[in-house]
Each structure stands twice: as structure tokens, then as C-alpha cells.
Design brief:
Shape: globular
Low-confidence stretches: 1-35, 37-68, 123-137, 401-406
Strand order of the largest sheet: 1-2-5-4-3-6
Order of helices and strands: EEHEHHHEHEHHEHHHEEHHHEH
Largest sheet: 6 strands, mixed
Helix content: 25-40%
Structural class: alpha/beta
């Protein structure tokens, strides 16, 4: 499949999945050319497809959304929808790289809404032309795709399903194979690039599979749809573009992935997500489990499982909700290091010298389970959380081998 450079103008915005309060006025698409800095598995029907693809058709949620009535948030969302509409191709297979995190969730909501509203917002003259050209046979599609691998924690998979249901967007879950790539396993700085390369390649394959399914469904009695163009989207925001260790952005560029949020900050992402009623608008960032491994620590399924189990234990014992940043890092030599938000550590320490979190974890047998059950070699204690604390730029002698695996 090839990526389309076509765009369509839309100006009206409507609630996500039909559940959020109407948030749009008339948005000016021209403003977006200048940027936007002015400011579980329950209820899913699944079917099997090729390459271990599971297609999940989500339903709208009956729960009341979180509504932010701020005029600034309304304008922000209008601008995002207008910008997304310019990127979206209504005649293509529009595929969102979905993780269940707030960034990709917002993009999924925007792309889904832009695609759903296309018919009601095109100009009458354009509508007549399209209808005369057999519009139904040129209708594209939209879906979110969640890559499943040992690097994705089960809690994130559950969240992704919940958010997709809230939005109403079809969700596809597909197994990815970055874990078998030697460069990924080495984890010497190129793992992110390799992972995203595998992911975007898989997304294109998934889109092709779904298009073939649609052609079979619609072929009876009439000409099947003929949209062989694939448009990929991700949740990259402006903060992400400033991080030199995010080599996955290079892979995104290679696949011409579109990023509706790359002109707004993480804070703006959360505000827009809250306005749209997304349930994870305030959830702590949750990058893949591989990011918990210090550079040079092999990215094996065993190591990834170890940090997942350890983090679940930490959150349960310390009673941490989903908005709190909590990581269990695997450092060189197999040492487990717990990281928590500084505000949590400072508040509960009450000015004392002893680390209450480390003491409580030890009392509940965390160190013993780290060494005896999960595969760590020691417990190094608890320290303040820092994004990317164990990440590092690749060395000059490290060469990505993803292309060979693909």
C-alpha cells in the first residue's frame, strides 16, 4: 500500500463516539497551517484475520464523559479537529497506531470523528460529484491498531480496549515481532527505532487485510470498494519531538506517518482529551516496558515480564492510582530500581530521612520476590521518577538491523 498525500477540508466538529457533549463551533482550517500553539475485553466481538490479527468492533460507552467547559479547551479541540481533517483522507484506509495512552487516544478520537463527519461537512457541489461517481464504492475506512508483544503490559491492553469502546472506533489487536529482532534484543539505543519499524510495517499489513475483508463483504451484487491507499497516524506531541532518544520518530518519518499533535504540548493533549471525555486524560504516561531496561540490558521476554510483575506489585502495595508515575527499572547487573513521583515521596516522607516506600516494599517481601521469583539480582531502593532515566543515545558502532528482519 502507498500513503496518500490527499487531504480533505472539514469545518464542523462533533462529539467523540456520540457520547461527549458537543464541543465545536466553526473552526478555521487556515489557522492550523500556522500551528496550534495559540493555546476487559467486555463488550467486544472478535474475529480472526491473517497474521494473528484480531479485529475488535467497539461499541459506544454508556458512562458519562468528563466534560471540560473551558472556552480555551473548546478552541483547542476545534483546531485539532480541523488540522486532523486536513491530514485525513476519507477514501483511504486511515490507521491509528494505538497504545491506549492519552496521546494516541486523542489522535484516535480526532481521526474517527473527522472520518465520521466527512459526509456531513463536504460542500454540496462536491457531494454531488462524489455521488455521481458512486460514492459508496470509494468510501475509505478508519481503525485503531494495538500492537501486542511482551513489551506491552496487560493493564495497558485493558485500558486501550476501554478507550476504544468509549470513542467507538474499531480496534484491531495484532501480534508484533520486534522481540525476535537482534537489534531490539541488544537494546543498545536503536530498540525504539526497530520497534516502530516493525509496528508501522505491521499496521500496513493489517490495513491491507481489513480492506480485503471489506471488499469481500461489499462485493455481492455490486462493485467492491477500491481504496488501496493507507494513511498512518501516531500520537507524537511537541514534547516528544525534542527528545533525541526517540529514534522511533525516524521510523515514523520513513513510513510518512502523520502526527496531528506534533504542534501541541503534553499539557494541551491532556486538556483536549479531558474536554472530549476520554477516560485516560489524566493517566500517567506509560511507555513500553522495554523503556524500563537500562541501555545494554537485553530486551528479552523474561526481563520485560520481570519489570511488569514488579510494577504491578509496587502499585498494589503502595496503593498508587493511575495518575502517579511509577517505574521499576532494570539496571546493569540485574538491579531493580523503583522510581516514584517526587511529590509522592516528599509528601509521605514527612521530612524524614528514611524512605518510607522502600521500607514498605521490603516489609511486603518485594526484595525477595525480585530475586527469587521475577529474575532480578538485587533491589537498589527507591528514587525520584525521571522520564527516560535509563535511556541513552546509540553508539556509533551500533547499526540497526530491522531492515534485515523485515
Amino acid at each position: 500500500p502507498t500513503l496518500s498525500k490527499n487531504v480533505s477540508k472539514r469545518h464542523d466538529a462533533h462529539p467523540v463516539g456520540g457520547i461527549a457533549k458537543k464541543f465545536s463551533t466553526r473552526a478555521n482550517a487556515a489557522n492550523d497551517k500556522k500551528g496550534i500553539n495559540g493555546e476487559t475485553a467486555n463488550g467486544h466481538n472478535t474475529t480472526k484475520a491473517a497474521h494473528e490479527v484480531t479485529v475488535t468492533k467497539s461499541r459506544s460507552s454508556d458512562e458519562k464523559p468528563l466534560v471540560h467547559t473551558s472556552n480555551d479547551s473548546m478552541k483547542l479541540v476545534d483546531k485539532l479537529l480541523s488540522r486532523t481533517s486536513e491530514m485525513m483522507d476519507p477514501h483511504a484506509a486511515n490507521v491509528v497506531a494505538f497504545s491506549g495512552g492519552v496521546d494516541s487516544s486523542l489522535v484516535a478520537a480526532l481521526v474517527y470523528r473527522a472520518f465520521s463527519d466527512y459526509d456531513t461537512t463536504i460542500q454540496p457541489s462536491t457531494r454531488t460529484t462524489i455521488n455521481n461517481a458512486n460514492h459508496d464504492n470509494h468510501r475509505g475506512s478508519v481503525q485503531a491498531v494495538l500492537g501486542i508483544s511482551p513489551a506491552v503490559p496487560q493493564t495497558q491492553i485493558i485500558m486501550a480496549r476501554t478507550v476504544a469502546t468509549t470513542i467507538g472506533i474499531p480496534l484491531t489487536e495484532v501480534t508484533t515481532a520486534e522481540g525476535s529482532d537482534e537489534t531490539y534484543q541488544r537494546n543498545d539505543g536503536y530498540a525504539c527505532y526497530v520497534c516502530k519499524t516493525h509496528l508501522y510495517s505491521t499496521l500496513e499489513t493489517v490495513a491491507t487485510t481489513v480492506m480485503k475483508q471489506q471488499q469481500q463483504i461489499h462485493s455481492e451484487g455490486k462493485q467492491p470498494p477500491n481504496h488501496s491507499v493507507v494513511v498512518l497516524y501516531n500520537g507524537t506531541n511537541a514534547n516528544d519531538t525534542q527528545d533525541p532518544t526517540r529514534l522511533g520518530l525516524i521510523a515514523a518519518s520513513n513510513f510518512l506517518v502523520r502526527s496531528p499533535l506534533d504542534t501541541i504540548t503534553k499539557e494541551q493533549v491532556r486538556r483536549a482529551a479531558k474536554h472530549l471525555g476520554l477516560p485516560n486524560w489524566n493517566a500517567a504516561a506509560s511507555p513500553c516496558l522495554r523503556s524500563r531496561l537500562a541501555t545494554g540490558v537485553a530486551a528479552t521476554a523474561q526481563h520485560l515480564r520481570a519489570v511488569e510483575m514488579a510494577e504491578e506489585f509496587v502499585r498494589r502495595v503502595l496503593v498508587l492510582d493511575g495518575s502517579v508515575n511509577a517505574r521499576v527499572r532494570m539496571l546493569a547487573g540485574g538491579k531493580a530500581m523503583v522510581e516514584l513521583d517526587h511529590s509522592i515521596l516528599d509528601t509521605r516522607n514527612n521530612g524524614g530521612e528514611e524512605n518510607w516506600a522502600a521500607n514498605l516494599l521490603k516489609e511486603h517481601g518485594f526484595e525477595e520476590r525480585c530475586v527469587g521469583e521475577w529474575g532480578f539480582r538485587s533491589f537498589g531502593g527507591v528514587r525520584g521518577f525521571k522520564t527516560g532515566s535509563v535511556a541513552a543515545m546509540p553508539t556509533e558502532d551500533s547499526v540497526p538491523l530491522a531492515s534485515a528482519a523485515l
